[in-house]
Write a structure and sequence with these properties.
Layout (H helix, E strand, L loop, with lengths): L2 H17 L3 H18 L10 E2 L8 E7 L6 H11 L4 E4 L1 H6 L1 H9 L3 E4 L12 H19 L4 E5 L8 H9 L3 E3 L3 E2 L8 H11 L5 E5 L11 H16 L3 E3 L1 H4 L3 H6 L9
Parallel strand pairs: 1-6, 2-3, 2-8, 2-9, 3-4, 4-5, 5-6, 7-8
Bound molecules: zinc ion (ZN).
The site of zinc ion has 6 residues, from loops.
């Protein structure tokens, strides 16, 4: 539902309650409406259901995540990750998968996780469940055509993390868990590779989920070369702190998976 609707309903009900001399109830309702509004635009808010964010603090792993691709800078990102022996999670757009299927095949071949970012990066918080389901299904179809259905993990990150009840409901009905992040470094504002690397280094710690971009959700063919250039430094910072670079599923694998697989966190769920 649109935030203006929540705000409007909250204001109308509160005004009615005040008119009926029930100020406490009016205040409670106004706070509830404000909370719902804020939660829709707070990527880590649990109000509309559990969100997959930080991994366990006791395990020395971090997840690099890349949104909006694949695009022209994705090969450079994949090259950098391969040089560092790092695995990452790519929240792909179905529209971009259709344009660059070979890059999705390369992601899978090199051990990265494919997750959904919707089809065309349209903001979903304003849209109904049918539209959200359509975005998820079209992205699944694109990945299936590119590399096979089994490559698509059941992890979904809404564009900008904006979610409403219909977004969460449709994702859950589709078998998806909703993913967020712990730190964004605003690489999409192109502050320079050194700044991206410095902000990322500050963010890295056990359980960090770092939000980066290998493409641009609004200008699909735009370069993200600064992000690619920052990756060697980001990976070095992680290594210096003894942090393994793993996929989201590996980061959130149940503790038993760590022991069962001989000390190396496995493919997870
Ligand atoms: Zn995005």
């Amino acid at each position: 539902m649109h935030r203006a609707v929540w705000t409007g309903v909250g204001a109308a009900v509160s005004a009615t309650l005040i008119a009926r001399r029930q100020p406490a109830a009016a205040a409670a309702f106004a706070i509830g409406a404000a909370l719902a509004t804020a939660s829709a635009f707070a990527p880590r808010s649990p109000l509309f259901g559990r969100v997959l964010g930080r991994g366990p603090r006791g395990v020395p792993c971090v997840a690099l995540t890349f949104d909006d691709g694949p695009g022209p800078s994705t090969p450079d990102v994949l090259d950098a990750l391969a040089r560092e022996g790092a695995r990452a999670t790519f929240f792909v757009l179905g529209r971009q998968v259709e344009r660059h299927p070979a890059l999705v095949r390369r992601m899978v071949a090199e051990g990265h996780q494919i997750a959904s970012h919707g089809y065309d990066h349209g903001i979903l918080v304003f849209r109904g469940a049918r539209h959200v389901r359509d975005q998820l299904t079209r992205t699944e179809d694109a990945v299936r055509a590119a590399v096979g259905a089994e490559a698509m993990s059941r992890l979904f990150r809404a564009p900008h993390g904006f979610r409403g009840p219909a977004t969460v409901w449709a994702a859950r009905r589709g078998g998806y868990r909703t993913a967020a992040w712990t730190h964004g470094v605003f690489d999409s504002a192109e502050p320079g590779a050194a700044v991206i690397a410095r902000r990322s280094a500050r963010a890295l710690g056990p359980g960090t989920v770092l939000l980066l971009h290998d493409a641009d959700g609004w200008a699909p063919e735009r370069s993200r070369h600064q992000t690619a250039e920052a990756l060697p430094d980001i990976c070095r910072s992680a290594r210096e702190r003894g942090l393994a670079l793993v996929t989201m599923d590996e980061l959130h694998a149940p503790p038993g998976a760590y022991r069962r697989r001989g000390g190396r966190r496995g493919a997870g769920t």
